[in-house]
Specification:
Largest sheet: 5 strands, antiparallel
Number of strands: 16
Shape: elongated
Radius of gyration: 19 Å
Strand content: 25-35%
Low-confidence stretches: 2-19, 118-124
Oligomer: single chain
Structural class: alpha+beta
Length: 221
């Protein structure tokens, strides 16, 4: 029975790793200028990435048979993945997609363009004003009650119910303006622009096994 459980856990871990394989992409025009701010998603329009100033985007759970949905202003294009592991997309000047091909260099980047998949959920986009309104002075205390499933243990540690950890790590990853930190003690609630809580933070590898709490400050805007 013990061997069966170990095998089942290993198989589930393998499936989780496969689901979090990075998918990097770049969107440009025919003159190679980047397409900035385009929305990119696969199956759920509420879970999307946006191209950065260089036209780059990253996703984490793209299956071989999926299609990439690309929204540029009011135009939506659907591009079959067709087993590609990356995508270099060129938008034609007259509209439409000129070509979309796999790029080995993008594949080799690994998680190079993937910081996180954007989530539109009750735990995303909690404003600093809302945190201040709780009357708490510490960020984690303010998040309790605002984030379903977030618990503070008697020893001060934090746990997100619903996370899956094969490494034994249960504490979420703490990130401030893109930098991983050990705690939020130096973060002033009045300096916070938004906070996002991810229960699925597999894009950060084993460090994100317990989820992630991502803080964006006003000075890091």
């Amino acid at each position: 029975m013990k061997h069966i459980l170990i095998m089942a856990a290993a198989a589930l871990a393998a499936l989780t790793a496969a689901a979090s394989t990075p998918f990097n992409g770049i969107v440009t025009r025919s003159d190679f200028s980047p397409v900035k701010g385009a929305k990119v998603y696969v199956n759920d329009a509420r879970r999307y990435a946006k191209t950065d100033k260089n036209g780059r985007f990253g996703l984490t759970d793209v299956a071989p048979g999926d299609s990439i949905h690309l929204i540029i202003k009011k135009n939506r294009y659907v591009i079959p993945v067709d087993s590609a592991r990356s995508m270099r997309i060129v938008v034609a000047d007259e509209g439409g997609i000129k070509n979309a091909t796999e790029d080995p260099e993008l594949v080799d980047l690994g998680f190079g363009y993937v910081k996180r998949r954007e989530y539109n959920s009750p735990t995303s986009g909690i404003s600093g004003e809302r945190l201040v309104a709780t009357g708490r002075s510490q960020l984690l205390d303010a998040l309790v009650g605002l984030v379903p499933g977030l618990e503070r243990k008697p020893n001060g540690s934090v746990q997100l119910r619903g996370t899956n950890s094969f490494t034994g790590r249960t504490e979420p990853l703490y990130i401030v303006d893109g930098v991983i930190v050990t705690d939020f003690d130096s973060v002033n609630l009045h300096d916070i622009e938004t906070v996002e809580v991810l229960k699925d933070a597999s894009i950060y590898g084993s460090r994100g096994a317990g989820g992630a709490i991502i803080v964006k400050t006003k000075r890091g805007r």
